[in-house]
Amino acid sequence: MTNTRSPAGSAGLLAGGVALATLPLWVGDFYQLHLAQLIGVYWILIVGLNLVVGFTGQLSIGHVGLLAIGAYTFAFLAGTHELNPLFAIAIAGVIGGLCGLLLGLPSLRLPGFYFAMTTMAFSLIVTELTLAQDEITGGGIGLAVPGVSAPFDTPDGLYWLILIVGGLVTWLTWNVSRCMWGRSLIAIRDSEITAMAVGISLFRAKLIVFVFSGVTAGVAGALFASLQSYITPDTFVFELGLFFFVCIIIGGRGSILGPFIGTIILTALPELVAPLAKLGNFFYGLTLLAVVLLIPEGLQRLFEVLAEKLRPRRIESHVVTPDLTRLAAAIREGQSS
Amino acid sequence: MTALQVTDVTKSFGGLTALDQVSLELRPGEVHGLIGPNGSGKTTLLNLLSGYYEPTKGDIRLDGEDLSRTRVQHRARLGIARTFQKPRLLGTMTVLDNAMLGAWRDVGSNFLGTALSLGRTRREEREFARRAGELLMGVGLGHAVHRRADLLEHAEQRFLEIARALAMRPKFIMLDEPAGGLTALETEHLGRIIQVMRDAGLGVLLVEHHTDFVFRICDRVTTLDLGKVIKRGTPDEVRKDPEVIRVYLGA
């Protein structure tokens, strides 16, 4: 938040940014590009969910429901009704946000466990509805989904679009995370009593962030559908919602870089390392177990601890000695403004 | 500025009466001590004043507005701040971030404006950081501004809670056992800080077991026992009261 970024950190971010921007030029084959697109789409959802789970501490495990709603909205508008795909993506975001609002209104007042159960129930209901409403969704048979219009109609083009959207939403949440809003969300997560004491309206803040995550989930759903080119209710299994949640927990709460790396590792490793693919959920479970037991604060904290090991800072014991003149001036300034 | 007025407040939890017709007036520019044995209702009264509890009977008023049934957040915005018996800091954030959190009532940018990093958000951030920085220097935490709050020593945590409360630009500040666990020297510093707050016109409510400290720095003292006010007055009057000596101070 207010900690200043080191030159090495800035250089790393710049290098990472350049690598991502030029990825279609150096990536090995079409399959790896597809994987990069998939990671990007997941990330667009996770970056919004991260504000809900990682910052505000509201344990939503049902965001796959919002992803499905975005995907079917896009398929229905751009496919069945041949609407402009870019416009359809925007509408999917709006619908995702509205569904987030409708889900958040009754559920965000509930204590953690019950909130998590509500989001799970929501995602199960969405799956059932997509099966039942077959005149819109194609039922169990599913729907073919069109690609995005030019200049995003090639695999490279779709990657750029995902990169632009992903970069934008990451920038938005990064801005939130380093300002008063970010502090207030962490206060809600770590101590509701403290948050109330400084005047933060808990429900209002939770709802705003939840609606934001609904918008990013809706947009991610639209891009996801376009990427998959065919969707059925089986595409949106409950485990996918758990997967999003686990990416954040492994990455570390209250961080953006951590969950990003978590998303890359959990998406790419089972695909690239063949033996892991067979293990599937077992791999996720094992990773989660290892992180929760060994580094409960996630990958982000692991990096921080390593950095501190490399540059040890001695913390000296210090008698707290007030500067009363300065304090008086600061208090009087507050009283008069 | 008018006083924060507690009138005939009763608070029952089920059959248990924690506070019984308690009245108290917290005036600007005055340090008001609240003492009494464990379980006499001191923290309950603090929780009623800051809004975590609702009174069963009676009311709490500020400027004629009845606050008794308003939310904690509303009272924070009116300028009633508090600290906690056990410091409630956000351990993963820096000391500066913790202090800045107190400025929440002055935040004007909404979520979208913040996400888009509009000029107003950035201006506010700079202003809050400057204000919180001054307060941290003032309470003596200048050496730890960028340290994670969970790495603070006990006294530093207590002073950070005070800085956060002051960042709310309060009219009234309620301190729940702020001297708990402090050394004699640190308690001395705390006393000075409280006097600075009073001189700046804040009304201070001091809940404390450390009675020498209370009698030394308070202008008025209220003594509770079993949820009832047994004596109120100047420190000298309270110290010499036979009932207060019997139930609390000891011979």
Automatic annotation (TrEMBL), chain A:
Family matches, as InterPro entries: ABC_transp_permease, LivM-like
Membrane spanning residue stretches: 31-53, 60-80, 86-105, 112-132, 157-174, 207-231, 243-269, 281-299
Superkingdom per UniProt: Bacteria
Topology within the bilayer: Multi-pass membrane protein
Localisation: Cell membrane
GO cellular component: plasma membrane
Keyword terms of this UniProt record: Cell membrane, Membrane, Transmembrane, Transmembrane helix
MF terms (GO), sorted A to Z: branched-chain amino acid transmembrane transporter activity
Principal location listed in the UniProt entry: membrane
Database matches in CDD domains: TM_PBP1_LivM_like
Keyword Membrane assigned: yes
This protein's name: Branched-chain amino acid ABC transporter permease
Biological classification of the source: Bacteria, Pseudomonadati, Pseudomonadota, Alphaproteobacteria, Rhodospirillales
From TrEMBL, chain B:
CDD domains: ABC_Mj1267_LivG_branched
One term of GO molecular function: ATP binding
Any GO CC annotation of this UniProt entry: plasma membrane
Domain of life: Bacteria
Keyword ATP-binding: yes
The keyword Glycoprotein is annotated on this UniProt entry: no
Xref: Pfam families: ABC_tran (PF00005), BCA_ABC_TP_C (PF12399)
Domain called ABC transporter: residue spans: 4-251
UniProt KW keywords: ATP-binding, Nucleotide-binding, Transport
InterPro entries: AAA+_ATPase (IPR003593), ABC_AA/LPS_Transport (IPR051120), ABC_transporter-like_ATP-bd (IPR003439), BCA_ABC_TP_C (IPR032823), P-loop_NTPase (IPR027417)
Protein name stated in the entry: ABC transporter ATP-binding protein
